[in-house]
Design a protein that fits this description.
With about 240 residues, the chain is of the alpha/beta class. It has two domains: about 140 residues, Rossmann fold (3-Layer(aba) Sandwich), CATH 3.40.50; about 90 residues, 2-Layer Sandwich (formyl-coa transferase, domain 3). The chain is about 40% helix and about 10% strand. The chain contains ten helices and six strands. It has a three-stranded parallel beta sheet with strand order 1-2-3. Strands 4-5-6 form a three-stranded antiparallel beta sheet, covered by helices on one side. The two termini are about 25 Å apart.
Length: about 240
Amino acid sequence: MRRTAPAWHDSLNAGKEWAEWARGPELMAQADVVLESFRPGVATQLGIGPERAAGSAVYCSITGFGIGGRHEQRAGHDLNYLGWAGVLEPTAPALPPVQIADFAAGGLGAVVEILAALIERARTGEGARIVVSMSHNAHKLVSRAPVLTQGFACYRMYETGDGRHVTVGALEPKFFARLCELLGRPELAERQYADDQMSLADELADVFRSRPLHAWLDAFDGEDVCVGPVATFAEAEAELG
């Protein structure tokens, strides 16, 4: 990454202190937490495996497929793990906009387990051995949330009259009812969770295509309707930065 994406490399590694490889065992002996992301077995070969960590240390390995399965030694990166996990089924061949396996299934998954282990260590004085599988965690993420991505008309994106899109997340009846009022179609509110979601979505789509994005955002400004834009990166940076 130092060569291919230096800005990203600098951002991800900000605040880190670099040390010579030979100091690994010395640093591990003092560490509260040790984090590594080699394929299983490599850290041990390099002399920095979990057996070299202090008994009170939390040793976490972020892996592609965990330990013990038939894919344990399979090489891969974020996109491969997402493919194995079934995450890409609805989007292929489009790439996801962020590295879900790296950042969410791997990074955030490790953070949660490490913090939990540190709390337990405060009670018992004992460290922990943690193994995070990016593929398994990514599969859990996608398998637990299909209800919001499989067809509710009140939870989807709609094209506007200028070719842009709005996001609608009006899951609660009060939000959807107010949205329908502002769209000039209050009678649609009673069909929010009716069986024929495609018909409802088609009617909403026709309404949203009647005006450009900025007009809809102006109409919804200050209203509790759970509607927003599909912003460009530049727009998001200007709005949130």
